[in-house]
Amino acid sequence: MTERVWRYEGYDPAQEQLREALCTLGNGYFATRGAFPECAADAVHYPATYAAGCYNRLTSTVAGREVANEDLVNLPNWLSLRFQLPHDAWFTPDSKALLSHRLSLDLRIGVLERESRYAVPGGRTLQVRQLRLVHMTDPHLAVLRTEFTARGWSGELEVEAALDATVTNAGVERYRALNSCHLTGIDTGTTRPDTVWLRCRTSTSGLRIGMAQRITTAPGTSVRVLGETDRAVQRIRLRLPRDRTVTVDKTVALHTSRDPAIADPLDAAVDRVTGARKFPALLGGQRLAWQHLWQKAELTVPGEAGRVLRLHLFHVLQTLSPHTAELDVGVPARGLHGEAYRGHVFWDELFVLPYLNLHFPEVSRSLLGYRHRRLGAARDAARATGRPGAMYPWQSGSDGREETQEMHLNPRSGRWLPDHSRLQHHVGSAVAYNIWRYGEATGDAEFLHTKGAEMLVEIARFWAGAATYDEGLGRYRIRGVMGPDEYHDAYPGATEPGLDDNAYTNVTAAWVLARAVELLATLPEPCRRELIERVALDPDAPSRWEDISRKLYVPFHAGVISQFEGYADLAALDWDDYRARYGDIRRLDRILEAEGDTVNRYQASKQADVLMLGYLFSPTELHELFARLGHRLDEEMWSRTVDYYLRRTSHGSTLSGLVHGWVLARAKRSEAWQYVHEALEGDVADVQGGTTGEGIHLGAMAGTLDLVQRGLTGLETRGGVLRLDPVPLPELSEYGFTIRFRGHWGIRLRMRPGQLHVHIPSSDREPVDLELEGRTLSLPPGATCELALTGRTPPLSGPPGPAGQGRTDPGDAPVAPPPRDLRQPR
């Protein structure tokens, strides 16, 4: 691996699906995994193509129940291209004929290069070089260039290029018992000898898909079209001169009936591929488009961390590119790289949009628009529970209904179990958080005062409706939910799922209510009047929200914040015993269930829950938020809370290391790098043991970028001011990036030990107000300055107030065990 090229030497079947995911190419409209074009889907290879927002729903029988699941559809395989000597077997990497192989992903220009050598009879070789791109300028085009060189011989080679609709959704082993054939109505044809087409539709959503393929090769080469039902196939008989290269270019166009400004997807695909430029021109356009993307998302971090961060940024850019701003899509948790989570939209946007806000705000606005267009479904969901407002689903897909599976499979026990994840109503707070942070970063008052305000108010109404007053406590409570932890979905022995007073849920609900009150008070009068009339808001609602936002119950015990009410009563887990018996205990829930036990009985968390509060809010904000709730959260209590949950967390999610690294950078800097390193390596090293092959973890990738951008710099955009409070780690003390802030494009920040370099590009905009470690200055466009850093970290403290109440145990101050050192052999 070089600084800008991700390279794999040799062919390793055990690593193939990991490589396919990490070498996926996309452009925000569609993406294709980095599979061998000559291989069909099997136990080793999984070529697949996904278009953003293209879903289909199928019903399966699961544990004797009829269950409907909506999936991001694996579209026809446009990549298919295989080759053989006449009357011989097709070459494949799994045959003994493969002599060498190299795969190189050029992050600078979004091109995947493959070089392989195959043995042919007589001690000779066939050299194959391929260049692949999914076009970033024209989002409907992809190209595969294949160069064949006969080393030491001459002769004929037969090449077959196809559009293959025999595909299914089979990329996740635990889903394979479910119905997976999403494509129907398949038809193929040709317009001229060099061009074939394929059309089909999804079986229930009725999405129409059109693909067209054009073959360009040496003049005089004949191209035959084979009449197959489910595949549009072209065969070519190449004449290979000795030691000379012959090139075959396969250009493909993809359209669906979701596309605007077309009459028919097939006609659009045929027209587009017919008018497509030749490979050199397409490559030039690709190079320029990626150059512009990298300029807008400039990131300079030295060493190994920098190389991994650039890979992460590459995958974020090709999943959520500027083309995404033209689509009605959300943030797929696994990108467009695989089928895990069925391509659904979760709260992962909470980790993605803060990065995009400062580089591609038009994409952030579009992704928030996806939520607004599904506000009606969220209102229906809240109404079905007897509550007002909007209850966003834990998993969302095409139309905004709850897509969370009703049953999930434990691969360890083989049992299908009830899935209660839909009780994670905190996803609504994540939507509200993203609306507010987008407004702070961009100053987009038009969105905040209209669609943003409508969503924020409806989410606040839901939380106000979910909160019930407890006379004994003198507090409001929110019962029957799940927190971000995900391990705990019920109390031990309970007949109904749900937990009471999850601290993260209650505190973020209080924040949402406070922001809704603030927004209503500051909206321009015409906007406020129109909003109140449109949503039929009770005139007394804001005063009630204000009251609830100050009186939501937050449980405490042993001098720390409780994850939920009753957490302290759960049994202690013998962590050493489980590590000794199982080694990797990240998915402790599966281990315990296979033993006939349940994680609900133990003080054990899958990932950050309470500590997520330190991820979302700066120390100052967090103190103010708890003070508003009537609690003193000082540095000592927060440090105890961090220690307490570090010891009780198995890190069963790639997001866990990210959040812990972010929090520890301020709370326990010496321990932070272990977690940051794990977050960086999450997909590259596949630390979750096979999950990356099912799709990259987009939230974790974007989150590591935001860790550099906001976490280590302490960057905030509150009040129209760029606020910075750096906490550089020794392992990551020098870095730089550019951001886009309230109309200023390309503000450059460079962090070095003891110094911050700031440059504001020339423009006709107002000066940028900057606050650094208590100092405030105004920088006009065109200004450059060097600012000294004192290294001061403000304490998490404030004026005296009532401390959190609960049992105390001064001796319970555990030391956080670091995650496995990834530098050691696995």
Q: Using DSSP, what is the number of strands?
A: 32
Strand order of the largest sheet: 1-8-9-10-11-18-15-14-13
Oligomer: single chain
Task: Report the end-to-end length measured between terminal Cα atoms.
Answer: 20 Å
Shape: globular
Low-confidence stretches: 797-826
Mean pLDDT: 93
Q: Bin the strand percentage.
A: 15-25%
Sheet of most strands:
9 strands, antiparallel
Number of helical segments with 4 or more residues: 20
Secondary-structure class = alpha+beta
Cα-atom radius of gyration: 28 Å
Helix content: 25-40%
Key words describing this protein structure:
single chain, 826 residues, alpha+beta, 5-stranded antiparallel sheet, 32 strands, globular, disordered C terminus
What would you say this structure looks like, in words?
The chain is of the alpha+beta class and 826 residues long. Helix content is 30%, strand content 24%. It has 20 helices and 32 strands. Strands 1-8-9-10-11-18-15-14-13 form a 9-stranded antiparallel β-sheet, covered by helices on one side. Strand 22 (467-470) and strand 23 (475-478) form a beta hairpin. Helix 4 packs across helix 20 (698-711), helix 6 (361-373) packs across helix 9 (445-466) and helix 18 runs antiparallel to helix 19. It is globular and about 85 Å long. The protein starts with a strand and ends in a 38-residue tail after the last strand. Mean pLDDT is 93; it is low at 797-826.
